[in-house]
Write a structure and sequence with these properties.
Blueprint lengths: L5 E5 L7 E8 L3 E4 L4 E8 L1 E6 L2 E6 L3 E4 L5 E5 L3 E8 L1 H7 L10 E2 L2 E2 L2 H15 L5 H18 L1 E2 L9 H12 L7 H8 L3 H12 L3 H18 L4 H7 L5 H12 L3 H8 L2
Antiparallel strand pairs: 1-2, 2-9, 3-8, 4-7, 4-9, 5-6, 5-8, 7-11, 10-12
Helix pairs in contact: 2-3, 4-7, 7-9, 7-10, 8-9
């Protein structure tokens, strides 16, 4: 039986509005998105990913980045590892003192930048070895932001806006992901067939309505866990049937368990 290689460390939050994660895993990640900007270095291995500019490949030494709401996945060629910083988008924009809305700043999905790679690796080395205080770590994160924002943004605007049908379904799900929903109900909401809904939603969003619902529930669960609520309670509050269903969906999307996330983010 093939061994499941999966090691992940979500570090206790040392800087507000920044999640810090290291991962070494052979698992594939399904299409999903984050609420934050992500900046990291590919430490070993390689993978193919779907992004807002199509399929991209990342290998050892590359910088990998994601934008808030950008649908992406991760298909590895074998065990691969990375170190990532996930930064609140408001913080990113504010640090740039920019009048641009968050969705107008778009980071490239994969770049080769030895300078930024060294910055990220130095940050993680000092973090794990307790070599720096909080102020020094905060400064290093801002230097990473400056390097990425200055050299690795896309000037093109995002893709075609969602159709009114897809936008309505997305908003309906996002407004109350904890509610019990059916494909029939969502299709009726838009006066189209279930087949039309799945086809249109998948084409425009990059995932099915059910996959998007699970992602929204995981996002809600993260918010509740960060407030210190118990995992067993969060499962029901976020719309999952029980704790095991929450754990499965949470780990599939984030690579970590709800308990690991709660431990890292709760003061």
């Amino acid at each position: 039986m093939k061994k499941d290689i999966h090691q992940v460390n979500l570090y206790r939050r040392v800087v507000p509005d920044v999640e810090i994660l290291s991962l070494y895993s052979a698992r594939a990640f399904p299409r999903h998105s984050h609420d934050q900007f992500g900046i990291g270095v590919f430490a070993q291995g390689s993978q193919r990913s779907w992004s807002n500019i199509g399929n991209v490949n990342a290998v050892t030494g590359d910088i990998i980045m994601v934008n808030p709401g950008e649908i992406h996945d991760g298909i590895p060629a074998g065990p691969r590892g990375w170190h990532m910083l996930y930064i609140n988008p408001d913080v990113f924009i504010n640090e740039w003192n920019s009048d641009l809305p968050t969705d107008a700043l778009i980071l490239k999905p994969v770049v080769h930048d030895p300078v930024l790679g060294l910055m990220v690796r130095q940050f993680f080395r000092q973090l794990t070895n307790n070599e720096s205080d909080t102020m020094a770590l905060e400064e290093m994160i801002l230097r990473c932001l400056m390097q990425a924002g200055k050299h690795h943004t896309l000037t093109a605007t995002r893709g075609i806006p969602y159709s009114s049908t897809v936008r309505r379904v997305k908003e309906f799900i996002d407004d109350a992901p904890e509610e019990n929903m059916t494909l029939t109900g969502l299709a009726t909401l838009c006066d189209i067939s279930r087949f039309q809904l799945i086809r249109r939603f998948s084409r425009e969003v990059g995932m099915t309505p059910h996959a998007y619902l699970l992602q929204s529930r995981v996002r809600l669960a993260k918010k509740l866990l960060s407030q210190g609520k118990r995992t067993v309670d969060v499962a029901l509050m976020a719309g999952f049937t029980d704790q095991s269903h929450l754990t499965h969906a949470f780990q599939k999307q984030t690579g970590i368990t709800p308990g690991q996330y709660r431990t890292a983010v709760v003061e």
